[in-house]
Amino acid sequence: MAVRIGNFRVFIGTCKEKRMKRWYLHILAGLFLALAMASSFGTFAQPKYGGFVLREVIPFGDQGFAAIFLDDLKSPRGMRLNFFTPDNQSAFEEVIPLERQGIRAKFEGAFAWNGRLQVLTSLYYPGPKRNHLLLQQFAVPDFQTTEALLVDEAYTPELYRVPFGYALSPDNTKVMFYSWTYTLPEDPARVTITVMDQKLDTLWKQRYVLPYKNESLYIYSSRLTDDGRAFLLCENYTGKVGAYIDESKIDYFVLGAENEEENMLIYDLNPAGKTLRGLHIDPAPGNAMSGAAFYQDPGKEIHLGVYFFHIPPAGGKMTQTFIPIDKETYQSAFLYPGGDGIFNANRHRFESYAVNKTERLPDGSVLIFAQQEYYQRTENVFEYNDVLVMRIQPELNRLEWIRRVPKRQAETYNENVFSPFSYKLLPRGDRWYLLFNDLADNHASPGNQRSLDRYWGEDGVMIAAEITIGGQVTLYNLTRLLRSKSIARIWTTHCWDLGARELLVFGEGPALLQNFLVGMDWEELRKQPSLKWEN
Fold it and tell me: How far apart are CA 358 and CA 293, in angstroms?
């Protein structure tokens, strides 16, 4: 059966597994590590709770940051909370039991809100076949419980069905939760939207019956605007559910929900005569929503250009823009001398990109970040390659500039939360930073027509690519700096911007089962040697 793993479709498992949310696959990990942590200021050991694994870090500005550890990433019995001061010293810790009456909770997420730490967990009760979404609120830095409530519940016939999601408004004044009640595969999907304020009072709540079957619906992500409008990015498969997926029978759409509206609005994302790949959606200024994808001719793999859509504030009509990108423009965006010629296998074709971020700028232009992601079926290998960054002017139907940050990474599928593959995007003022690992040879002085080799997770180089609003790209080599702090490779999903003070990087040490969390000043990053090419 075809399932989604990240942006990939892979043929494994059963029909029901196909519609699992993509982020659920990443937390089904049975990783047990003895965790030692180090910073630029010193090492803080964890002798008392040696079986806990870092799951998340939540910044609290000048106060410091909270770190969340679980004793089992798949079905934890306990959660340890640590609060670290700005000099990276552990100030408070608390262990929270997550097992209730023999049932273990699943970690759903955590975020800082209203000056407190919010932790979401869910519990599945096999008898009544119900999932409960629980929100626990802790004061910082001492982790005193200030609130605990049942946010929502959903009927689900199987434990693997993941029915919940959440999103914060850009101004952090509201939070939205959705729950998906899954009955029979042929039944219509039922979704409940709940929007709360910072006091955890419900602003509005509504249950919707959707015109889609449970087995054919797939929810990619959820978003919330400052005025409390909720959005779900979805697909509906109109073909026969089975081992083969006919891409031409996938309908993409955004569901919009507003207070006092009994039905969801449906924003159709199926342009006539085109197919879409790699959809993504993000909030935009003025209580709007923007998204992007790449468009193709039906049945073809080569991208023709970028597709952008904009959902204005309540009452407005969605607009759509198609901006073509020809092969020459795509190839000229590569940073190496001479572009990437015919010897660069799998890299000179404008295909397999998925949008990871859209950001609407004050002048109306849009920044789009995308990564080349595809599955080599004959080798059972996933590749995460170049990052494509572009700035477009939708109103003028114009491509301002386009850049391709080179990298080539490959892995066989694993379910670990901790991965050295892909990249982490960190916006900072008028610059954006991409953190990733790659082979050193891929970033040496390349010469013309050089192909890139696959990075398989070994010790390589650790790179920060800086992108300016004008499209200037600078690649900083962080390898010497991070190795001096005991990091041999970055786990890219676990890096955080702590504000004015520093960048927090989590990575793997030079020895097995040694893992380190280090603080690095942003100015220290920009003092590292840059990798330069003459275009």
Answer: 10
